[in-house]
Specification:
224 residues, 5-stranded antiparallel beta sheet, two-stranded antiparallel sheet, 2 domains
């Protein structure tokens, strides 16, 4: 039996949805997602062809990193959107890939394939237990830095923890390559906007340092 005979693609995918929901995975549009601590995991399970195959793409990112991304690209209104928007929204940061694979569905027992998907998802996530904060997430990203798709995520994470010099170097490299970072409005790319944000933060740090030095000199003399 193939799709279009007794069981439709939508019906089979709904079986998967019910199975995933048992382990607290939520679904919106094409994505299944779940927040675990400070990390947001998601996987697609939507493309089913005539060979009864489901293609799975599993990825993750810090749950709140899009908040900074939206500040940088001047879309603060997106902060009011539900968590699912951080996965399926038009202007969001692409997550770091974890794994992708094809699952073959037995038309007579489709639930077995989706239970297998869930088992593999859990196994892949378990291998990432060493990622406990933003710095360990960045360390993981840097091991995959050759993938241009994760570069906007890496630059944003570096800005978030104030590793501004490193973030600037990466942003300027991508600008020199004429890469947009997946966001471009009025000929301004994400990396150009990120560079502006970095410069702004560097000025704040510099001014803060000057103020601190002045205060020490002034108040130090006053005490004497």
């Amino acid at each position: 039996m193939a799709f279009g005979e007794k069981t439709t693609e939508k019906e089979w995918l709904n079986i998967g949805k019910q199975i995933f929901r048992k382990e607290k995975w939520k679904r919106s549009a094409w994505a299944n997602f779940q927040q675990k601590g400070d990390l947001l995991f998601s996987f697609s399970c939507m493309k089913v062809n005539k060979k009864n195959e489901v293609v799975i793409y599993l990825e993750f990112k810090p749950a709140d990193i899009d908040l900074l991304f939206w500040e940088i690209v001047s879309l603060p209104e997106n902060k009011q959107q539900p968590m699912s928007f951080r996965i399926i929204g038009a202007w969001v940061l692409k997550g770091c890939p974890i794994a992708n694979w094809i699952e073959v569905i037995d038309p007579n027992k489709p639930e077995l394939a989706f239970e297998s998907v869930l088992q593999k998802v859990n196994q892949h996530i378990a291998k990432l237990e060493h990622i406990t904060d933003l710095q360990t997430f960045i360390n993981h990203l840097e091991l995959q830095a050759e993938q241009t798709s994760i570069m906007p995520l890496l630059v944003t994470c570096l800005i978030r923890i104030d590793q501004l010099d490193k973030a600037m170097k990466l942003a300027e490299t991508e600008i020199s390559k004429k890469n947009s970072g997946g966001f471009s409005v009025s000929n301004t790319t994400y990396y150009q906007l990120a560079r502006d944000e970095i410069l702004k933060r560097q000025r704040l740090v510099k001014n803060s340092s000057k103020t601190s030095v002045f205060s020490k000199l002034f108040f130090g003399k006053s005490r004497k």
